[in-house]
UniProtKB/TrEMBL annotation:
Protein name (Swiss-Prot/TrEMBL): NAD(P)-dependent oxidoreductase
Keyword Oxidoreductase: yes
Sequence ranges assigned to domain Dihydroprymidine dehydrogenase in this UniProt record: 25-135
Pfam families listed in its UniProt record: Fer4_20 (PF14691), Pyr_redox_2 (PF07992)
NCBIfam families, per database record: gltD_gamma_fam (TIGR01318)
Source organism superkingdom: Bacteria
Amino acid sequence: MAERMLKFTTVDRVTPPKRGATARAGDFHEIYADFIDAKAAEQASRCSQCGIPFCQTHCPLHNNIPDWLRMTAEGRLREAYDLSQATSSMPEICGRICPQDRLCEGSCTIEQSGHGTVTIGAVERYLTDKAWEEGWVAPLVAGPDQGRSVGIIGAGPAGLSAAERLREMGYAVTVYDRHDRAGGLLIYGIPGFKLEKDVVARRTKRLADGGVEFRLGFEVGRDASLDELRARHDAILVATGVYAARELQVPGAGSAGVTPALDYLIASNRVGLGDDVPTYASGQLNAQGKHVVVVGGGDTAMDCVRTAMRQGAASVTCLYRRDRANMPGSAREVGHAEEEGVTFEWLAAPRAVTGEAGKAKGVRAIRMRLGAPDASGRQAPEEIEGGDFDLKADLVIKALGFDPEDLPAAFGAPDLAVSRWGTLKADFRTQMTSIPGVFAAGDIVRGASLVVWAIRDGRDAADAICAYLSQPALAAAE
């Protein structure tokens, strides 16, 4: 093993080939190619196999990263894949969209020593893509029939990962989702240049082929109340995510041409999937030829600015009230956006949307500086007197984050307890909500977060539901 590993001092860090900015800005295909076998083995061999694997402890799924890197370096690719998928329901998706620079790779020991991190995410993606190509991804096989059913509300990463695990345990699983395709934000929120949609579709097909039932175009509260679903199933998991857009609180924010980020991204993804989208065809949610200003600094803002470039915008500007070092989005995504021609206005905030006859024509902004830390410990932005400036803007996209929808009202379930932020209250040990037999997982509990955390929460919720349904008292009651 030692001969094949610890090569970080002699082998430089190399990422998979990345398409040039000009070429990739003209389409929605992923920007990175796959590793070839030899390059994946070479990069995996850079792992130091450290005694305390910080990459593993800082991965929400606690993936056994050092061991599958070693197996990759040794050419034991099927074993490496089997180990990587043992703790993750969607390793090729995490390999593409996880912010590895803030998680596993950001905690890599050799990165801290100045040798450059192991390219963990790229190797993870390579292993699972290889597994699909070689037929190593086994069909989903249900365990011994438990005689019980679970309803899952939400076909995003938390719901899908829970569905897979519950089906493996032998439960009948029905997934309900308001959209016409399963995948949640994986399908409709994240652009194709980060995650091509066939990657998601083959995962959901595997679940359907394994007996998971999908009820799409189904909205709880419209097509059935929560109580009606509880009557159909022995347990319910709420995994809806958080989709209520935070508002832009400035004059003119209600003008035509000001739109929520998710509406914009859904329209773009639907067009890419071949759907007829009237709001895109009319130009309402299409950036072609427009001056675009995106307000916000997270990963959703990066998705919007990079989408606008691909739609042929005349200019794209990201307006963020803090500096680059304090931006919540991935530094890697910021770098990609800059390469593709996006302009960043750091330490700047909107004061008004300007225009005529209720239509946006610009954004009046003001320069900011970072002052004393706020309650969260981050330096609070303050306006600089006389720092006003104007930007052209035919399309203003609000990417200020997401809040939970009012699920007690929407589900007709006033007893469903929520926190002061509107997220569902769930016991941290059992993940059960205030209603017996109703569980919750993912962003609807923790607030807007990462896909990898949603996958972790879904897997944990499946285990909690199994423990609940296995209680002798429940069996006796029947």
